[in-house]
Write a structure and sequence with these properties.
By secondary structure, this protein is mainly alpha-helical. Helix content is about 45%, strand content about 5%. A two-stranded parallel sheet has the order 1-2.
Length: about 325
């Protein structure tokens, strides 16, 4: 859109684009409705609708080219497989090759639209560990909402530890974190603006209250698989909750470990003060943009009272009555 936008108009900031996109204002209607429409159609009529995620296509290109050929009623023959026809098709249709064709570098669709505006970056997933090659038991950290968990997690006995926090402290923490990540080309996001966005449920991982409620309900329905923990409880009664966590994971502390104060050692090793002062967290970085120290600020309960005149209690009580 930046490339197509009239030079008579001021540039559209990423923040403005985010708000418009979140409201469903785009050239082809709300993104979510768009995807959901075809997803449901593919479930109801898979012989006519082929639903494919770009990420899957990038990760397992050969497999998905085969699937596409079969869907179109033109499966590859043994001879074509032997002659590596699929690999040739993949190369012919690769981003690199298409973006470097003369027609795409210098051609135009019309007087306003050059072909090269349709090529920017070859998007790929960041490198991740091959989970199957990691030794069991495996540990992963994520911010995924309950409703977005893959079936492989829900159906195969994985244990999930969910830690939530008071909504007001979440907002203040998120506001400070976003300020560190925000482009210097954009004006600072005021706390008032952040409050309004958060109250509307506009955040990276969806509405805060829906996120918490999803795991809360799951923990009530299946407590042997979902361990629901409030940050405030963990801070107030750390040793008790470390013991509860160990029991939930099937690794309770032995009498000898209790006698040797292993619980207290673990608590100290994992304390905010110790982790925030590790060299890797003071000076290391995840990538060119995110320094590790961005993930550490205070770790205190109730710091929201130093910032917020308004509060989120009414929304929290309505959405999460009895949880906080």
């Amino acid at each position: 859109m930046t490339k197509m936008r009239s030079k008579d108009l001021r540039p559209l900031s990423l923040e403005e684009a985010f708000k418009l996109f979140s409201k469903g204002l785009s050239g082809y209607g709300p993104f979510w409705d768009h995807v959901l429409g075809y997803w449901k159609a593919s479930m109801e009529c898979p012989q006519r609708i082929f639903f494919l995620r770009y990420e899957e296509l990038k990760k397992e290109t050969l497999i998905n080219v085969r699937r596409l050929a079969e869907f179109l009623g033109q499966p590859f023959s043994m001879e074509e497989e032997r002659e590596r026809v699929m690999e040739e098709i993949i190369e012919l249709c690769s981003f690199k090759r298409l973006s470097n064709l003369e027609v795409n570098k210098n051609g135009t669709i019309n007087a306003f639209t050059k072909n090269d505006i349709f090529f920017r970056k070859e998007l790929t997933q960041p490198p991740i560990a091959d989970a199957e090659k990691l030794p069991s038991p495996r540990l992963f950290a994520a911010h995924i909402p309950y409703t977005s968990l893959p079936k492989s997690i829900l159906c195969y006995g994985c244990k999930i530890v969910y830690v939530c926090r008071n909504s007001k402290d979440v907002l203040i923490s998120l506001w400070h974190h976003m300020a560190k990540m925000r482009s210097k080309d954009l004006p600072p996001l005021s706390l008032e603006e952040a409050f309004k966005l958060f109250s509307k449920g506009l955040s990276w991982y969806g509405p805060f209250w829906d996120h918490v409620l999803g795991y809360w309900n799951a923990s009530l329905e299946c407590p042997q698989r979902f361990f629901f923990l409030r940050y405030e409880e963990l801070k107030k009664e750390t040793s008790i909750n470390v013991r509860r966590l160990a029991e939930f994971l099937g690794q309770p502390f032995s009498v000898e470990e209790e006698r040797e104060r292993v619980v207290e050692e673990i608590t100290e090793l994992c304390s905010f003060g110790r982790l925030s002062n590790l060299e890797v967290n003071k000076n290391g970085s995840r990538n060119a943009i995110n320094k590790n120290d961005m993930f550490f600020r205070k770790g205190e309960v109730g710091d929201w009272s130093n910032h917020l005149a308004e509060n989120l209690d009414q929304i929290t009580n309505e959405k999460l009555h009895g949880i906080f």
